[in-house]
């Protein structure tokens, strides 16, 4: 810092600053809030400036968020917004398997299933969490350390930037597990990747690679995370070296098949996961963001968020009400199936059985739900 600038600070900075946080700093299990020194484009620490790193810390359950974790995220984004010395927010998670897979299905199945009045209150918190990300006074970078699925995809898309390690998968899960992706995905996806691809993701629920996410425009940068024999290699499970097949279809970022997929899996087993390039990319993006006029930057990202904000604010209350009522039948069934099932019995119901029952007017009863559980005879 120049001596003249330091002199101005010493002479004019107030001795007391008002605290604009709603509550004192609070530690919430499952959420980590830390301030890391900001760096400039040369990689040097900038004294007095920080980036707030907000971590989901539930790796044993693929960083799915519990009710308490939702509260913690709301408080963390509020704290980052109010912190005068924070330049950028990095939103990420512990480990290398998952950024987030959405709401905690164990909690959904064991507490909220069949309790629409309780789930409606939970969804109020969920709405506030998404709004806290969309309304954060600092730019938000989603550091995708692993799969970003379901509600994890929704809260990730609420961020301003996505930087991902290229082994991560993206996607929705709603209609496969008794819900609909109306916690943000149906608002954000058409804006971000177009109506057709949004329809594919939101209804078929087929996960897609980080390379495809980059191609579709849902990620601004991807970096390798697999190290084999000391060298970084691109995700060996996806097609990364050509763009068109013999029919002229874009296949860059699609998953390999057959012998190519088998060979990719073998290479994956030989390697190790290293997220150092991901951290470098995130730090570099944060450095670029501090090399701007702060109020001009704030106004820019506030305006650029408006297409997502407009869609979100138009639909979030309707969605909250529908999701609550859905806990009486399909969500009650789907979340229980996921929670009680396993790899052997499946975590999904037999969908044709349900459709056949409904086709002849069978009512939703506890007996019907029990008959649809994985492993039921």
Give the total of beta strands.
13
By CATH reckoning, the class of the largest domain would read Alpha Beta
How many helices? 15
Sequence stretches where pLDDT stays below 50 over 5 or more residues: none
CATH superfamily of the largest domain: 2-enoyl-CoA Hydratase, Chain A, domain 1
Main sheet makeup = 6 strands, mixed
Q: Overall mean pLDDT score? A: 94
How far is it from the N-terminal to the C-terminal residue, by CA? 72 Å
Please report which band the strand proportion falls in: under 5%, 5-15%, 15-25%, 25-35%, 35-45% or over 45%.
15-25%
CATH architecture of the largest domain: Alpha-Beta Complex
Q: Within the largest sheet, what's the order of strands? A: 1-2-3-5-7-10
Overall shape: it is globular
CATH topology of the largest domain: 2-enoyl-CoA Hydratase, Chain A, domain 1
Helix content: 40-55%
The helix/strand series, from N terminus to C terminus, equals: HEEHEEHHEEHEEHHEHEEEHEHHHHHH
Total domains, how many? 2
Instruction: Determine Rg (CA atoms, Å).
Output: 22 Å
- What is the SS-derived class? alpha/beta
